Amino acid sequence: KKEMERWKKEAASIAEPTDEALFESSKMYVLLRSIIEKEGLSGISIDCLNFSFSSKRKLPVPCLAFTRLRDEGFAMPCEADVCGMLSTMVLQEISQKPSYFCNISSVDIEKSSTVLRHCVAPLRLLGRNAPALPYRLRDYHGMGGVTPQVSFPIGLEVTMGGFTKDLKNFVAWPGRIQEGIDDTNRPSFDSPVPELKKMRRYCSNRVELKVKDADVFFQKIVGIHHVMVAGNYAKALREEMIRLNANLIGPIDSSAPVS
């Protein structure tokens, strides 16, 4: 109840979620935090699409729990992505900041930009001791559950990327946040299945990045999942990949700020 009240108190607004949904999400946080402490873990992930992406879900949606645990310094990638877990650990350890685990939604080569989306975004993107970013509480794809819709700071320099599936390469791309749109009227799926038709198509969080060499980035994408942290860590990542005997893949001058 204390965790639920904290979410309600600190949110800029609450759109669709009910107290019942907030309470269930808060219980998930308490449970996962206790497992981490008992087992001495660095992070946890859940096959949430199987367990949560349904109106007859077996577990509460873990988005709020993952947000809080990332803010507390743990690696919490979505969808039981093991490669994403390792990518998260590397970027959070180097940056000492919580990460945004996201989908590459689109790449615009002409604008040299990419759109990132996902339902879990850290509140303390700027650092664990920095002020939390403003957020609204939204439902999970129109299906109940709760996700935080975070207002990303425009102009912030970031690093995104991750390991290839064979762990031989790490793609690291600098970017600058140029837009973070509130998808208040997220469209629904055009589906003949009634349950799917009610679901909102897009995740709660959306951020558009200006990136270097978008055409090259488009060719080097390691998969739909990437990890984003605030700041440029090209030099530190290069040194870390030497220690791990992995190749670092990125734009020609990845250390220079993105204009």
Question: What is this entry, summarized?
Answer:
The chain is α+β, with helices and mostly antiparallel strands and 259 residues long.
What report would you give on this structure?
Helices cover 31% and strands 23% of the residues. It is of the alpha+beta class. Strand 6 and strand 7 form a beta hairpin. Helix 2 packs across helix 4. About 2% of the residues have low confidence.
Which structural category do the helix and sheet elements fall into?
alpha+beta
Please give the oligomerization state of what you see: single chain
| Residue fraction in strands | 15-25%
Average pLDDT, all residues: 89
Rough shape? Answer: globular
Low-confidence stretches: 188-193
Computed CA radius of gyration, to the nearest angstrom: 18 Å
Q: How many beta-strand elements?
A: 10
**Largest sheet entry:** 6 strands, antiparallel, barrel
- How many angstroms separate the termini? 45 Å
Helical content stands at 25-40%
H/E series, N to C? HEHHHHEEEEEEHEHEHE
Alpha plus pi helix count: 8
